[in-house]
Amino acid sequence: MKRVITFLLIISVALFFYSCKKKVKTIPQPEKKVEKVEKVEEKVPKLKVEKLSEEEIFQRKTIEELNKEQVLKMIHFDFDKANIRDDMVPILERNAEWLKKHPTVKIRIEGYCDERGTVEYNLALGEKRAKAARDYLVSLGISPDRITIVSYGKSNPIDPRHNEEAWFKNRRAEFKIIAK
Question: Which domains, ranges and CATH numbers included, belong to the chain?
Answer without folding.
Answer: 70-179 (3.30.1330.60)
